[in-house]
Amino acid sequence: MSPAPALRHYLQFSDFTADEYAYVFARAALIKKKFKAYEKHQPLTDRTLAMIFEKASTRTRVSFEAGMYQLGGSVVHLTTGDSQLGRAEPIEDSAKVISRMVDLVMIRTYEQTKIEAFAAHSRVPVINGLTNEFHPCQILADIFTYIEHRGSIKGRTVAWVGDGNNMANTWLQASEILGFKVHVSTPSGYEVDQSIAGIRSADSYQVFKDPMEACRGADLVTTDVWTSMGYEAENEARRAAFADWCVDEEMMRAAQPDALFMHCLPAHRGEEVQAEVIDGPQSVVWDEAENRLHAQKALMEFLLLGRQPG
Ligand code: CP
Ligand code: NVA
């Protein structure tokens, strides 16, 4: 048996190199092919994943839980309400205890500093299942989906229409690592912040006041809810500010004729996206959601076992 790889966490997109992403995407394609053929792929037999949710989830919960079982392992599901996390047990103590009992931890929480504190005291790999600042597992699946439909994303243009949120920040990190461009259009007051996004320079993205201009010539148009989890108190102000940031058919017409539309979901038709777009022929949102499963299986295998032959 080959030795376990050095402890690695996946807390933000910049935790892997372009070469590692090339491996993980190829591995996800192989794992998906086996899954579709009902062929067993169980390299994580007897391994346990702890999933900690401090915010709601459908896709992240189902994809990590089903994925871990399919890989031969098992899952423990914790929420703030039903664990001592909700009763102020220090995050460092929780990390020390949980990571003595399981092989891998996935956390969905608020501040990025919280997941970093957990990882700093964890004996096992920690995966970011969404924080206020980042959503790396989603962009992993999104880029895998882009590659499946259109080939390499290198040199392509992604239009981001909407909030300068965790998804936008993660797209920016990905563009710097994988060599593509992001056209960002947000309402004023909701701009991306380069220092929060954690990118070295502004070379890989361009800011547009007009969302239509951001979409012009884009290979992929993508958006997200106007109000992310944790920001519900701002709902009314956001509804007013974001009214023009709705991806519609006109914006899709401004993009490349073969442009794809993506949305991490859940979506609000009639707010950030028109029903005709998300339910239209350029939308790949269902493939995108399914690919969370395949991409994260490749991610979990890579963190626990490193690169695998064949
Ligand atoms: N896209 C995504 O992360 O969905 P959930 O909130 O349902 O997990
Ligand atoms: N930006 C959204 C993504 C949900 C998957 C949020 O953080 O709520």
First CA to last CA: what distance?
16 Å
Task: Sketch the topology as an H/E string, one letter per element.
Answer: HEHEHEHEHEHEHEHEHHEHH
**What is the average of the pLDDT values?**
97
Strand order of the largest sheet: 7-6-5-8-9
Name the hetero compounds present.
phosphoric acid mono(formamide)ester, norvaline
Enumerate the spans where pLDDT stays under 50 for 5 or more consecutive residues. none
CATH superfamily of the largest domain: Aspartate/ornithine carbamoyltransferase
Can you tell me about this structure?
The structure is a single chain. With 310 residues, the protein is of the alpha/beta class. The chain folds into two domains: 13-135 and 290-305, Aspartate/ornithine carbamoyltransferase (Rossmann fold, 3-Layer(aba) Sandwich); 138-288, Aspartate/ornithine carbamoyltransferase (Rossmann fold, 3-Layer(aba) Sandwich), CATH 3.40.50.1370. It has helices at 18-36, 59-70, 91-101, 112-120, 136-150, 166-178, 194-197, 211-215, 235-241, 249-254, 275-278, 285-305, and strands spanning 48-53, 74-79, 104-108, 126-128, 157-161, 181-185, 205-207, 220-223, 260-263. The mean pLDDT is 97. Bound molecules: phosphoric acid mono(formamide)ester and norvaline (NVA). Phosphoric acid mono(formamide)ester is lined by residues 57-60, 130, 138, 264-265.
